[in-house]
Amino acid sequence: MTEEQNRLASLREIVDQQLELVTMSLYVATQGPTSFRGESLECHLGELKLKTSQHIAMCAGQSVTTILRCADWRGIPVRDLYPIARSAIESFINAAYILVESDAVAERAAKYVAFASWKQTNRQVGSGDFSMKLSTSPLVQDATSPEFPEFAGSGNGVWTKLDVPSRFRKVGELAGRKAGSRFLAAYALVYSLSSEIIHGSPYGVNYFYQAHLPPNPTVADFKDATEKQLEDLLLAVSHAVAGYASTFFRRQGMLAPYLAEQELFNKLLALEGVEPVPLESFD
Predict the structure, then answer these.
(1) What is the per-residue pLDDT across 120-168, written as a single tens digit (0 to 9) for each?
(2) 255 Cβ partners below 8 Å, 6+ apart?
(3) How many angstroms from the chain centroid is the CA of residue 12?
(4) Helices 164-175 and 219-251, interaxial angle, to 10°?
């Protein structure tokens, strides 16, 4: 194996081990107490936070698993992994944000599910001559409903008014700098770039075809370049997984898995040539 292939293999192994910690967090939150490295683990999340954050975290973990299973891809198919990575990152940030915030945030998130379901069949689609109105009743004239007054009005039809950077800033303030900084890294690595690719912008397409290429590239060079893009995606989602795991275990006071997350993150730092962070109690 080449040095690049060894690095990718190491990164895949780290992400896989990180997902094991997320799986344990989901288990203790939804199934009941367990133990890890001699520590008894018991979750104390309220019903609304369980209902919202854990569903999101489970979906995020599945998206990362999908990327791992596609990690042998090379060439044009790698482009399809960008939206999956973006979804995983934002989902982990959302799950962590709900965990650290007040119950009112979780309550609004839960209500938003019902509101968004209603809005899906009561909305305006398209523009000008190429538009149509969807409605479950001829009496419905706009995208508001008396059943959901908290979502009425300009700018209120969302589950949270905080943008993504503000959400992981709150996570960092309430769950420690480790969690917040890991989400920041994940966001910086992929988020805006994935937007360009998801929306099929000229820049997004050009980036995918040109990133990491040498001068006068061959088809083989392009495949090698997409391998490096895949590494970029894995590195980004690894930071997001780490951010969520750190948030969950810190907020639940679970020291053993919190330190285990740091051990894995130190392996990630070593791949990047960065000095490891000393293992210590909660930051």
Answers:
(1) 888 788 888 888 887 776 655 555 677 888 888 888 889 999 999 999 9
(2) 39, 249, 281, 282
(3) 17
(4) 40
